[in-house]
Amino acid sequence: MNIGIGLPAAVPGTDGPTIIEWAETAAEVGFSSVGVLDRIVYDSYDPIAVLGAAAAVADVRLLGAVLLVPFRGGGAVVAKQLASVDRLSLGRLTVAVVVGDRQDDYIASGADFERRGHDHDRMLEEMHLTWRGAAAGVTGSIGPPPAQRGGPPVLVGGYGPAAIRRVVRHGAGWISGGGGPEAFGRTADLVRAAWTGAGREGVPYLAAIGHFALGEHARTVARRYLTDYYGFLGGDAAETIAARALTDTETLQRELNGYAEAGCDELVLFPCSADPDEIDLLARAALTAETAR
Prior knowledge:
Layout: E1 2-6, H1 16-29, E2 33-35, H2 47-57, E3 61-68, H3 75-88, E4 93-98, H4 103-109, H5 116-131, E5 135-137, E6 140-141, E7 154-157, H6 161-170, E8 173-176, H7 181-197, E9 205-212, H8 218-229, H9 235-243, H10 249-261, E10 266-271, H11 277-292
Parallel strand pairs: 1-2, 1-10, 2-3, 3-4, 4-7, 7-8, 8-9, 9-10
Antiparallel strand pairs: 5-6
Helix pairs in contact: 1-2, 2-3, 3-5, 6-7, 7-10, 8-9, 10-11
C-alpha cells in the first residue's frame, strides 16, 4: 500500500514557504504523493494553485484529493487548469473529485447546490472530452494537452450508487473520504463488483484519506482543527471525525494494517498542524511500518 501525505494548505494561517517546504520534504523522505483539500469558505489555499507550486519544487506524484468540481465553473476550464498542472509536473498528476456537501461553498461560488450531482456528471464528461482534444472553437482544441494520454487518472469519491456509477463511467478508481478501514472495505467491494460488471478492464485504483497529528499535544491539536474544519456538519459529526484522527503510533499502524487488509492501494494522510516536524514523525511511523509489512 502506498502512503501519501497531505499538504497543510487547508490548515488556517499556514504561510506559502511552509507549504513548499512540506512538498519538498515529503518527496525527499519517500511519500508516494502529496495531496490537497478543496474548500472556498475557509482560510485555505486554492488546491490547483498549490498543485502547480508543488509541481515546480517536488519530484513526487500530485494528488488533487479531493477537488469539488461542480462549483468550479465549466468542465473545460477545470480541464485546462488540470492539464496545465499535468504538463508542469511531467505527468505526475492524479485527480480525485467529489460532489461535496458544504452549501456555503456553493453559495459563495454562485453554483447550484441542488443540481451539483447533475453538474458534476456534465463537467466530468467535458473534462474528458477536453483532454482527448475535442474541437472547441475556430482554433481547434483546448490546450495544453495533458502529459498523460487521455488526461490524468481520475479517482471519484462518494459512497452511494451515483458515486459508484461515476467511478465506472469516468474514473480510474475510487477514493474514500475517511471513516476507517471497515467502511472503506464495504464500499470498495461494491466498486470492484460494479467495475467487473461493467466490463472494465483491469482493476480500479482504491484510495482513502485520513487525518493525523503526531507532535506535542496531538489529540488537542487534532480536535481543535477538525471540529473547526468539519463544523458545518454539526457538533456531534465533527467530534466523531476528530475522534478518528490518528494521534499516536500504535493507532496509526493499526489503521495502516486495516486499510492494507481491505485492499487499499493508497492511503493519504492529511495533517492537522502545519508544523514541519509532523512530516518526519509520520514518515518514521508510517513508511517504516509499510516497509516492514
